Amino acid sequence: MSVLSQFVWSVADTLRGPYQEAEYGSVILPFTVLRRLECVMEPHRETMAEVISQYPGDQQRRTYLKLKTRTPDNAGLNFWTTSEYTLQKALQDPKNLAANLIHYVSGFSSNLDVFKSFDFENVLRTLDTRNRLSPVVRHFQKIDLSPETVSNADMGDLFENLIYRFAESANDGAGQFYTPRDVVRLLVDLVYAEDTEALRDRGQVRSIYDPTAGTGGMLTVADEHLHDLNRSATTGLFGQEINQRTYAICKADLLIRGQDPTNVRQGDTLVVDRFEDRKFDYVLSNPPFGTDWKDVASDVIAEHEHGGQGRFTPGLPSVGDAAMLFLLHVASKMRDVDENGHGGKAGIVLNGSPLFNGGAGSGPSNIRGHMLENDLVEAIVALPNDMFYNTGIATYLWILSNAKPVERRGTVQLIDATEIGSRMRKSIGSKRVEVADEARAAIVRAFASREASDTSKVFENRDFAYWTITVERPLRLKFQCTAQRISDVASHKTLGKIPNLTETLGSFGEQVYLNREEFLLALGKLLREHSVTLTAAQRKALWQTIGEHDDDADDCVYTSGPHKGEIEPNPALRGTENIPFGWGGYPKTHDAAEETLEAYFEAEVKPHVPDAWIDKTKTKTGYEIPFTRHFYRYALPRPLEEIDADLNRVVGEIMEMLREVEE
User: Sheet containing 234-241: which strands, arranged edge to edge?
Assistant: First the structure.
């Protein structure tokens, strides 16, 4: 495939000069699509002309053309062109080449509108103006992209390789538009794993959806894998894509495969779900890593606040990373569970942050809680680093299901596949590692068997839940009007502006008060004697500025308000404790949970800070999946002798180089 890709891209040599490097893709991509369509239509041109002449309506043409071109291995054509031109025929009239090609493209059936997304007519006219149209057409006319020579899967690889080259040449986030095939195959295998036998049955009909479709690579692999299991299966492929060029390629690719082209739709999935009224058997997605959602924040927040009906109701992640929004969307698109207990399954590629970012009560934690409490997470697989074209960061496959098998209910399987990758002989961008077929099979076996091992562990959903309690300690203050404290009052932005205040404090003396009420009584008397009047807010600011923590001081007590008579906490000493749900056994009632928190506090906190207490109004429930902690492997440090030997060797090398310089 790399040879074919290089040959296709070699037309860049023709474009060099009149075109900037970043513009090459705008020419190469649509011509590749056109040549593929031409090669697919070529054996059926006579049949196509016959159907067009006999049937005037699009629906009739589509029905009869598909019927007459269908084979056991092909669903038949559902697109056509009314033009008699091909690239070769258009070249025979060099003076009118641009006009002939425009006529050629304009003759395609209405369901094949992808060339508008490429602005192809303008591309052709620009090539003609720059005297590059004829050599470019000759180049593509020589390439054999027939299905017999280039399979659908290989064609998908070619499109994605070209997209990668285009993005790389334009410095436009190379790799963000598609997922490496080894990752896609692993994801698809995991999603299908438990359905493999059922998918072999006759009459199977399945819908597959990708909300971040790119060029359609995930849909293509999922479709081909299902048909490998069952040649008679019927699939409906659905995708949404934000980028115009990749949308056009995806639509053309699915059209060639005999799919309904209206099932590929353009738009930002986070803003508008183009399939709002549909759910699917299988959902696959690799959303772009680390993209923010600030530009669509108003739409996302509106859906979050949509009275419990929106996709994003469970919570919102930080605006800097949209990954968990895509996770919520994917989960919402799994088809509902039917009367037989069958529902939908999904697989999504995510970075590490959705596992643990955000504390208890935060948007990310609430999203994890939604996924776990509704038992939607079946497994999470950690991939090796350096698996993707545009990043070397840690990545994970989340496998979701809303109808888990009985043995999986209430559990999540974690699989550590970080050490199972193979080094590539030649890296592509940041991709230096791949998952070979044998490794993929081993991961799928580990998933299917659920057997515990060093790299596969099964946890209960609630193992990832915890409470965060707020631990308070009493406010104990010592008051003494020292020169330093009076200086602090003078430099205070509000207190420093009150006439005669610092002079009055100077006459207070340096008597020590260990009780706030006694200090305030003495302070009030002194202020009245010096005719200094303070508001309630100013009095509070004053005692807060003069007071300093002292363990030997009396507890400060609220003298008014709803907490009157209660000990006042010291914000500076406030702390939090995370308590796993499983500490002391899983509680089954609210009262039991309260008892667990009290028991933990008495056992783990009170012995160290006897005067502390829990502020129960601030207790929150949180969720995190500390993946790496569960697979941590202790490595012995290197022996000191070995380290010393290395240091001595390096010092010796440096000294030798210094001697050479001196000589």
Answer: 264-266, 234-241, 205-210, 282-285, 345-351, 395-401, 377-382, 411-416, 456-460
Where the chain has pLDDT below 50, the residues are: 1, 174-175
**Residues 260/117/280/381 CA torsion (nearest 10 deg):** 130
Nearest partner of 617 among 555, 564, 569, judged by Cα: 569
Q: d(Cα 512, Cα 11) in Å, to the nearest integer?
A: 88
**Residue 219 contacts residue 261 (beta carbons within 8 Å):** no
The HSE-up count of residue 228 (CA atoms within 13 Å, CB side) is 12
Burial category of 120 from C-beta neighbours within 10 Å (exposed 0-12, middle 13-18, buried 19 and up): buried
User: Who contacts 591 (Cβ-Cβ below 8 Å, separation ≥6)?
Assistant: none
pLDDT tens track for 136-175:
999 999 999 998 898 887 888 888 778 777 766 655 554 4
Q: Which residues pair with 428 in a beta bridge?
A: 431
The residue written with tokens 């009493």 in the block is: 474
Q: How far is Cα 113 from Cα 252, in angstroms, rounded to an integer?
A: 9
User: What is the tens place of the pLDDT at every residue in 37-60?
Assistant: 999 999 999 999 999 999 988 889
Q: Is 489 in a helix, a strand, or coil?
A: helix
How do the residues of the chain divide into helix, strand and coil, expressed in percent and rounded to 5? 45, 15, 35
Owner of token pair 């997922």: 179
Establish how many alpha carbons lie within 13 A of residue 607's alpha carbon, considering only the half-sphere containing its beta carbon.
4
Altogether, the residues listed in the chain come to a count of 663
Please report the pLDDT score of residue 406 as a whole number: 94
Smallest CA-to-CA distance from 243 within 156, 361, 163 is with 163
Which residue matches tokens 């933990």?
Answer: 600
Helix axes 437-449, 181-192, angle to 10 degrees: 30
- The terminus-to-terminus CA distance of the chain in angstroms comes to 56
Q: Quick check: helix, strand or coil at residue 241?
A: strand
In three-state secondary structure terms, 266 is: strand
C-alpha 662/C-alpha 653 separation (Å) is: 14
d(CA 457, CA 158): 38
Per-residue pLDDT, 170: 57
Q: Rounded to an integer, what distance in angstroms lies between the CA atom of residue 607 and that of residue 585? A: 22
Alpha-carbon distance 286 to 368, whole Å? Answer: 18
CA distance 560 to 256: 77
Task: Give strand pairing partners of 207.
Answer: 236
| Cα-to-chain-centroid distance, residue 266 | 20
SS3 286: coil
Structure tokens at 136: 């470019």
DSSP class per residue in 25-42:
HHHHHHHHHHHHHHHHHG
CA distance 646 to 535: 70
Structure tokens that stand for 413 in this block: 């399987």
Quote the tokens at residue 561.
């308000």
Using CA atoms, how far apart are residues 551 and 553, in angstroms rounded to an integer? Answer: 6
503, 567 Cβ separation under 8 angstroms:
no
Chain center to CA of 260: 28
pLDDT at position 175 is 47
Helices H / strands E in the chain, number of each: 26, 17
d(CA 271, CA 15): 37
